Amino acid sequence: MPVFSPSDPSGHALAPLECARLPPDLDGRHGLNRAIGVRAQIAADHDIDAIKAWLARFVESQATFDSYRKEAERLLLWAAVELGKPLSSLTHEDILAYQRFLADPQPAARWVMRGRKVARAEPDWRPFAGPLSPASRRQAFVILNTLFAWLVTAGYLAGNPLSLSRQRARKAKPRVTRYLEDDLWRALKHSVEAMPRNTAREQEHHARVRWLISLLYLMGLRISELVGNPMGGFFKRRDRDGRERWWLAITGKGNKERLLPATAELMAELARYRQHYDLPALPYPHEPTPLLLPIGGLRRPMTRGGVHLIVKQVFENAIDHLTSSGEPRERAAERLRQASAHWLRHTAGSHMMDGHVDLRYVRDNLGHESISTTSQYLHADDDDRHRATESGLKMNW
């Protein structure tokens, strides 16, 4: 069947969306849910092209594009392989069956990655890394609902099979729990400082990890923001009291710009990191050097996957530095195993609140609301935000 990788005639390896080829009875040209008598707003004749038309709206945000492509791809392949149906013939009952499938993708040899994650072009690529958690399943259906609703609006589909799903009442957002408590935060910092530094490579790796953790915490950055912005975004301005303060201009989620206070502690960490590459202590305006560099001196951005792996290893190392014992240690270790880079962002927000930083400044630092000012239009409120962040958020290596 053409949805499988040509290099694996056994049918165990599926082809990703950009390589998948479906026969006429599965490509959706004659799907039972295709709109009839409606002037379509897209030129797509079959399901893959329709999905690509939908994905084209998100090419400016790589993280969003990857996430949306993943969910559409999984459903398309599942429908063709497991049901023998095109995506444009799926019914509400099919969607309920897919929901159960996400909780346990079987057969695993066909659907689940073996061992480490591999590139999409590799024969060992699979659509899943394992069963999806309830939260991931909910997110998948939010994305698929967006896909189906758009295809209906575009005149490609007659109806949205997800629209019959039970609508849950909107609940108040729960309190943030994905952050590092004080003992876990101390263990993480201790583990970084205990990293081996016997060789030049180990010294460079330690410097990179220390700078990475400093950036994620002191700036509350998302990993997509960290890998997508250069050091040339740092700039300094004189505040109303005549003191020069450093800022970082980044392009973040939704392709929106925001300004982040760069504390004296962060700028010292930046200078410390740059010395490993024989760079001047401070970057020049619009310098293209990425915020984080690969080992070996290459001046190119790291991938989001590469940064995630480093952070996960830091959390694993921190387990050995827990000071608690017995059951408390096991609970703490499990928290660290669950943690991700985003936990450092939540930890920063929590610590700013504990440091009595104004809620408005916390909001702006974390980018929960975009800014429209530029470097030459910094106002008194921005100066206050910088001072509050400086006093309320510290690494204390």
From TrEMBL:
InterPro entries per the UniProt record, alphabetical: CB, DNA_brk_join_enz, Integrase-like_cat_sf, Integrase_catalytic, Integrase_recombinase_N, Tyrosine_recombinase_XerCD
GO molecular function, one term: DNA binding
Domain Core-binding (CB): 49-152
A single Gene Ontology CC term: cytoplasm
Domain named Tyr recombinase: residues: 175-391
Main location: cytoplasm
Single biological process term from Gene Ontology: cell division
Localization of this protein: Cytoplasm
This protein's record includes keyword Secreted: no
Entry keyword set: Cell cycle, Cell division, Chromosome partition, Cytoplasm, DNA integration, DNA recombination, DNA-binding
Pfam families found in the cross-reference section: Phage_integrase
Record protein name field: Phage integrase
Species of provenance: Caballeronia choica
Lineage, uppermost ranks: Bacteria, Pseudomonadati, Pseudomonadota, Betaproteobacteria, Burkholderiales
